[in-house]
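Researcher: Good morning. I'm working through a list of sequences from a screen, and I'd like to move beyond sequence-only analysis. For each chain I'm collecting a predicted structure so we can compare shapes side by side. This is the next one on the list. No need for commentary yet; just the structure.
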Amino acid sequence: MTHPVLIRRDTVLALATHGLPVLPLSADKRPFGNCPDCRDNRCGGRPNMKTPGPCQCPRPCHGWAAATTDPTVLSSGPWAGAWRRAGAIAYHPGAAGVTIVDLDDTDAIAWARETLPPTRTVATTRGEHWIYQGAMQSANGVRAGVDIKSSMSYARWLGPGTGCMVALPSAVRAMVEKKPSRPRPVSLSVPAPAGGGLCSHRSPTYLERGIAMAEQRITDATSEVHATVYRTFLAVLAAHGRCGCLAETHIARLFTAAQAKGESPRHCTDAWANARTALGI
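Model: Good morning. Structure tokens for this chain:
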């Protein structure tokens, strides 16, 4: 059963007020860009716009990364027109602290009823969304007709659903986390910034403390990880990027921290390059 969604400003703002980071979807279920430079995918993101590309915007602006609770972003600027043209509302489950088990057909629903604890359920066009409290890594095709949507993903808002939401069961996590996750090896594709600027660091301790704080900031992120990584890279480069103090070992530490939170090597490389461009380095 299809649930028509009436796209109204008060609906969007009400969802955001309740802590649901939302974004508009076009009639073909694709996200809109969050700034004029990225409309129609001109900045180089992937065609389905689910993954941020090498964008020069001051913040991520594609797909799940564009989801926000900021009423100013939602009701003004480029998105004011986007909501008038939108065909549906989407949200970022991970940033809302939930995980969706997306069941695409009756066989998948039958499996869930036999395997998973009952929770809040939302009917979709072909199946059901089972929503659990708690965020995790997203993954598609974990079994026939089943996708996991949480961090770095988006889902359509189809209403509040029915039933009481329960904690994310270990059985769902196990479908993605087959073994204890470890930071993936870092393969650097970006050099450390060359020197040439005036070094204001009186001892290596200043740089070490800055890198350690940056690692901790990324590690402590509980939502909007992609944006946190970008802002952290930007801060590190602003403080240490022009004097030649940064070495590839420092960058590797930051990349490792980001990948441990689910960022891919390509996301790390793009975020680093975008931060350098934003600072003119």
